[in-house]
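Task 17 of the worksheet. Students: predict the tertiary structure of the chain below and write it out as C-alpha cells. Keep your answer in the requested format; marks are given for formatting as well as content.
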Amino acid sequence: MRRASPFLVVGIAFLSGGCDLLDYGKACTEIGCRSGLQVNFDAPATGVLRVEVRVNGPGSQPVLVYECGAAALGCANGAFFDDFDAPAALITVVSANSSQSTNVELDYIVTHPNGEDCPPDCSNATVVVAVPSETDLAS
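Model answer:
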C-alpha cells in the first residue's frame, strides 16, 4: 500500500483552510471597549447630582440612574451608562433644588479598537445635556 507524501498532506490541509496560513500572521490585539451612552454636561458639575436615563417619556421609570457627588462617584466628566442602546432617551439631571430634562435622539458610532476584522465591536452614543442652574453646593 502506498503512503501519501507528507508534502501532499500539508498541501491539502493548507488549501482546504485547515490552517490560517493565508492570513500571513495576522493577529488581533485584545483591547477591550464598552458599549453604551456617554452623558456629558454643558457646564462643570458641582454638588450632588443624579442622572436619570429613560427610554420613553416622563411617565416611565428610569432605566438607569447614576448618582454622583460627595459620597458617591464624581461625575465631573459626565456619566456613562453601560449597554444602553435605545434610539432615543429622556435624560434628567437632578440636583437638591431643581432638575433639567432633555429629550435626545441618539446616534451610535461603532468602533473596532482592534481593527475592522477583529473583535470586539462597540457601539456608543454621546450627548451633552444641561446641568440644573441651582445645584446643591453642600457636598
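Marker's comment: The helical segments are 6-15. Residues 6-15 form the longest helix (10 residues).
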